Amino acid sequence: MKTTELLGEVAPDLARLERYMADYLENPEPVLKDASLHPLQAGGKRLRPALVFLAAKFHRYELEKLMPVAAGVEFMHMATLVHDDVIDQASTRRGWPTVNSRWGNKVSVLVGDHLFATAVDIIAKSSSNETIRLLAKCINEVVRGEIQQTNAAWRLDLTQDQYIERIGLKTASFFGACCHVGARISGAPDELSHQLERFGFEVGVAFQMMDDVLDINGETRDTGKPVGGDIQSGVLTLPVIYALRHSADRDHLAGLINSRAFNNGQLQDALEVVRKSGGVDYTLDLASQYVDQAKARLRDLPDHPAKETLNNIADFMANRPV
To answer: What is the secondary structure of 227-269 as a DSSP string?
Structure first.
């Protein structure tokens, strides 16, 4: 589904957001300008700013108040991606060269810092201390999740609960925060803000689970990154955790992971063990449960076209191509 179809209710505002963000990244330093614009030009569905807009639709929608915050959360997201690509030594993202592959790690770290600072600057000029506090808390949770992921690298004893805690911090908390701040800026009551935050969190869990399935079952031309990249770097996701518990070939899989060095044949071997184990189907089923929980949060929300759009976003999480 195209972004304009999936996010139809706020598609015109997202188009305006693109121009707004590009203008805000104007800079007298050519390298900083070009490298900062690079991840913006790589595209993306802009789900996080879309959630800011959509969550505000149920109360008092004031685009001029929302636009800086929507831009700020996307700048924060871009900053985390730029830093992640340095950590992972990634050369492509969404089929687009990464900042570090074009300008090197030193410039990439500085660009990520610049994007974070730009996010704080734009939000501080237009919003309340509460919004800044909520988003700062969210970024701290993202960092905690990334640290957990780093500490759990190559660990064969990783549990499902630890995995869900990790993706809750590194992915889902950001989705939830976007819904929360959008609702709060619109003046929505606490209960409505809370329901939307929980919706965002549960959708975010499903989003990350589907991302992890795509790393096992996807195609590089669709995902824009090499298939099997997680397991190759020691990041054990739920399909792999399941296979290590239930596959008849779990000892073989454990041996491959313990080697910490996959040639292409060994990587394909490991992926095949995971696929045959039922781990992909198990993860898909669990992601669908989170989607159902998220959609249940919307039932008592006021009737508005944004409600259907949020339902469509939830369904998209459960039906991304695998």
So the answer is: TTHHHHTT---HHHHHHHHH-TTHHHHHHHHHHT---HHHHHH
Is 151 among the domain residues?
Answer: no
Report how many domains make up the chain: 1
Report pLDDT digits (tens) over 160-187: 999 999 999 999 999 999 999 999 999 9
Report, in angstroms and rounded to the nearest whole number, the Rg of the chain calculated over CA atoms.
20
pLDDT the model gives residue 322: 47
Against a cut of 0.90, is the pTM above it?
Answer: yes
Please list, in sequence order, all residues whose beta carbon lies within 8 angstroms of the beta carbon of residue 132, skipping any fewer than 6 positions away: 120, 123, 124
pLDDT band at residue 321 under the 50/70/90 scheme: low
Given a contact cutoff of 8 angstroms between Cβ atoms, the answer to whether 316 and 276 are in contact is no
Q: Domain with 47 in it: what CATH number?
A: 1.10.600.10
Residue 216: domain span: 11-146+160-315
